[in-house]
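Journal club prep — side note

Before the paper discussion, L.F. wants everyone to see what a predicted structure for a comparable chain looks like in token form. Sequence:
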Amino acid sequence: MGLNIRSVSGSTGKKRTAQAYRKRSELENRLREYEKMQELERAKLEVELYENKIELIQSIHKESSDLVDWVKLQNSQPPFPPGMPGPKEAAARAALDRYKPSFLDKLLRRGERKRAELARKVAEAKAEDELDYQSWQETTELAKRIAGGDTKAYLQVIEAMDLFGDLASFGSRFECIVGDDPKTIAVQFEVLSEKAIPKEVKSLTKTGKLSVKEMPKTRYFGLLQDYVCSCAIRIARELFAILPVIQVFVHAEDERMNTSTGFMERVTILSVKIDRETLSRLNLDAIDCSDAMKNFEHRMKFLKTAGFQPVEKLEPVGIRS
């Protein structure tokens, strides 16, 4: 009997293997497409983040804290008359007084437990009322100090409200300085341009891939000027919103190489006195912040191809940084 080559060759098995290879090839192609899609999405997201940062750099001045009326807070009424039960305690005590054990409460002997729970809630409500009253006292006392020009209270409020927290996310640092004049405050603004301003331009190619190129110097310096001037206005707006000051001095500083010593040193690149009245007349949604410095007494020397040049500070009377 002859050998059945067809049955021994395992042709059916080869077919199954070929299908598996084809499936494997299809899956690998799908994976490559998926990875390509992920790469394109990552590129798109990275460009969007870059463009958003550029937009933020030029629009920092458009945000500000809400106005605080310290005189109104100073004259605000207590949450309840002193010596009387507070509203939370009164409500909890009324619930306790109204409680009458139901038939099931009596049957299951849980009336005393429920009464004890309501009594506990009365004690908790009384403690909450006391905290509310204490908070009112602290707020009105602080409001009296602020309205009275207590500059130490100014610093307390600035620290508590974290006014420049979002600006610090750019890498910059801020220090507020007060003196004898309660109508004036100065701010040392350490720019740290190396962190604040990107040095690369990110965009998408026609095929959707990420393109990263070195930012032209003129573009970099222009963005830095926009950022510094936008921050100066934002700093003034924040302080005008929360304090009864009428003028804010902003001294922007950045690091520069001192070629005579070979070391980096901090120099003043913008010093501006922003007064409340003039700032209130500007259309902040439409201004170019660099051009807007012309509205205020300031010192700034800027070259398109070299950026900021060192300037002398404007020194307010009674404040020395």
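L.F.'s comment for the group: The two ends are 110 Å apart (CA to CA). Keep this in mind when we get to the figures.
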